[in-house]
Amino acid sequence: MKIIRDFLMGLSFITIIAMFPTFFKYKQNPFMSFYHYFSNIIKLDFGGYKLNFYDRFAKPIFPDLFHFYSKSISYLIFSIIIGIALGILFSIVILLLKKKWRKPILWLNYFLISFPDFLLILILQALVIWIYQKTGTSIGNVYSRVDDEAILLPMITLSLFPFIYTLRNSLNTFEGIFTKDFILFAYAKGLSKREIIFSHMLKNALPIILASLPSILQVSIANLFIVELVYGIPGIMKLLYNNQTMEVIFPSLLFIWLTYFVVDVGIRFGKKQLQEGMAK
Predict the structure, then answer these.
(1) Domain parsing of the chain, residue ranges
(2) CATH 3.40.1190.20, applies to 69-279
(3) What are 89-116's pLDDT values in tens digits?
């Protein structure tokens, strides 16, 4: 029942958001826009879009929207997977270090999580240009072209937050598990710290770490908007930016929100199954 309520609330919120840009930009009655849009959908007329401001003619939004969505979701999924995997790996490495080496790393972690994404993009682009000027070697595109898309720099930018968030979350989770009785018992049996981390701690920490995926996805979706605009990626965020019409805003936001909704429901269901399994 809660899932249905959340779905209807989300759908209502998206509808309201999609209605009002037409009022602020074109001074049209938002409710009339809503009426015309869904009247046209009944007639199977889904409207059109322009990917760039200089495009002369609009193209049908469907099925092109699926292409823009798949482009954006590919960047999003791979960057989150890379960020989470590296965050868990680095947290294990940090735990194996001596305490005096942990503090500066943790300080750097807190600094990076507040670092502006836009500034990071400018630094990465400047670094790539500088390396190219000095060595003649191009390690990645600073902007997407029709025949040559930027991949490396957008992936690094999008992976940064999942990496930092997972690293901090993993370290806090591991530190909490270190005080558990079964860990102290493992130490008493003579197991090394490395054996305890990989044999006992990791399997207990992973569900807690992965439970933060909806929060990571929220921020990553917001970051995706900046990344697509600055790197010129022809994805769903760039489509939204260049088209403030209900014909584009409503289905685009619906696709983005459904992605988050499915992940959130999946994580909640997984946690519930895990808790029931542990209770047995």
Answers:
(1) 69-279
(2) no
(3) 888 888 877 777 777 777 776 677 777 7
Q: Which residues contact 272 (CB under 8 A, 6 or more apart)?
A: none
- Yes or no: say if 243 and 64 are a contact pair by the CB < 8 Å rule: no
Retrieve residue 139's tokens.
């390690």
Taking a C-beta distance cutoff of 8 angstroms, is the pair 69, 236 a contact? yes
CA separation (Å) from 109 to 12, 59, 86, 91, 162?
38, 45, 13, 11, 12
Q: Which amino acid belongs to residue 166?
A: T
CA–CA dist 201, 173 (Å, integer): 9
Count of all residues that appear for the chain in the document: 280
Rounded to two decimals, the pTM is: 0.82
Digit-coded pLDDT (tens) for 146-175: 777 888 889 999 998 899 888 888 888 877
